[in-house]
Amino acid sequence: MLTIDRDQQLDQLLGTSIAEFDIPDDVYELAVARYKHLGNWFSGYWAKSHSDGEVYPQGSFRLGTVVRPINPRDHYDIDLVCRRDIAKESTSQQALKQDVGLGISLYVVTSPQGTPIRSEGKRCWTLDYPFESFHMDVLPALPDGDGAKNAILLTDRELREWQRSNPIDFASWFYRMMREEWVQLHEGLLKRMDVADVPEWKIKTTLQRTVQALKRHRDRFFADAQQDRPASIILTTLAAMGYRGGGTLYEVLVDVTAKMPSMVERRNGVSWVANPVQPEENFADRWRAYPHREARFFEWVEQASSDFSGYGAERGVDRVLEKVARTLGEDPAKHAGKVLGSGLSSARDAGVLGMGTGTGLLGPLVRRPVPRHTFHGDAPPTRRS
Amino acid sequence: MRRQLVARSLALQAFALLARFPEVRAKLNPTSLVWTGTMQPTSLSRTYTVQVTYRMRRVPEVRILHPPLVSRPGESLPHVYTDGTLCLHRHGEWSPEMLIVDTTLPWTAEWLINYEIWKATGEWHGGGEWPPVAPLSVAPKADAAEASSRTDVHAERS
After folding, report:
1. Does residue A259 share a domain with residue A132?
2. How far A70 CA sits from the closest chain B CA (Å)?
3. d(CA B111, CA B125)
4. Would the pTM count as exceeding 0.95?
5. Could you tell me the domains of chain B?
6. Which of A16, A324, A374 should one mutate to test binding to chain B, selecting the residue with the greatest count of B CBs within 10 A?
7. Long-range own/partner contacts, residues A151-154 (CB < 8 A, 24 or more apart)
8. Which of A212, A246, A354, B154 is most deeply buried (CB count within 10 A of its CB)?
9. How many domains does chain A have?
10. Does residue A350 lie in a domain region?
11. Which of these three, A299, A326, A353, is where a domain ends?
């Protein structure tokens, strides 16, 4: 979109930079097809024992905050809950894990599309799809009879207690925090596409873009110490808590990172990032065992805040893009440059690009269109420094 | 008669430039026009001091006076002549009946934003032809090649 407003242009540049982290449409659609197929298979499997259950996505896939892995050889990590509707008293963590594991083994031998391979993790079963760019972590779960309607209990082979969770209500809370903008964007999409079946997962609000930027910045900051990375759920929770609704992407990036440190509570001397839908659960619980991770978290937030603030202080698109490249990576900077440059060229070729009187600002046509032309040259490039 | 037409054309170019950029300088004499003004191609961009020199029967020449154009390490600036003026169009895409203010200046603005993007990313998204295609004949010495290329491709400026 052509604009001559500085804040809008900065927002577009940052937005298109962050959009480079988005999961590609075909990968997303394939992943959905794969987990739905798995869910349908489990429905049939459970029906034989007269019980029920559900397979559904949780985490970034559900929240719309997936970020492309930095290393292209790494896979997208798609977290699924495999909830078996049985009472906690009728099973054990180990039995549930084995039950779901058996189901997954049986699923794999049916040779489903993608020819997945099963492996076991601490809390999940992993389905690796050798020819796809994603794998699925399937978390065995059962309903938490003592919790809210959507609360679940998860297994963990290193812990005696069931782990409480509620990814559905967490996602509902996250979407509530950005509801107004989401509805506006959804209505805009409806108008543009003029179809009933609008792909809602393609909508990206300022809060979702902010979370994506935080995650990528964190991944780069902790590239050499991945075990110290603050969990995505901590970043997502604090960003959503700090989001006031409204504001440009740049303003939200700056505002949220400035507020994040003060949003970490202290409860009886323990740093606490409460699960907003289960306040007794501390997302930062691991900081108790690894205090240096807490210190590293605050170090990282300070760096992110400083880097994000810097975007707005620059004069020159090259300086902004260079800063994006340094803080979020070269690919997002290149993507943003491409969208801006190609957008202007396309507008010129379509006869809708104009130039402002007295300024030279390129923008929407108000007077005469910029005529078509071909940048040229007279000599092969010579080496200059 | 011919001289009168030439002079009027230069005056018309100057008038059109000053009408759209009233706060800049234009030096007009019987055979040439030199316009020096500032341009900011996008709101996030720097402000550049641009000089357009137009001699009758030639194409306008555009130079960026300030800030100095900076190349990427080990690379030359794209779409720039060896004398430092900008290559904004192919031969025949500009003709004297066109107004500089409606062609050369917006093309300069486009060049500047694409230069900023290129400087950061190494990628030029303004389209065009770069690097220029070498002539098919036996390659002459470098200096002669540059001179002949300028003569062939941009006869109006030679």
Report:
1. no
2. 18
3. 10
4. no
5. 2-127 (3.10.110.10)
6. A374
7. A151/A278, A152/A81, A152/A83, A153/A88, A154/A123
8. A212
9. 2
10. no
11. A326
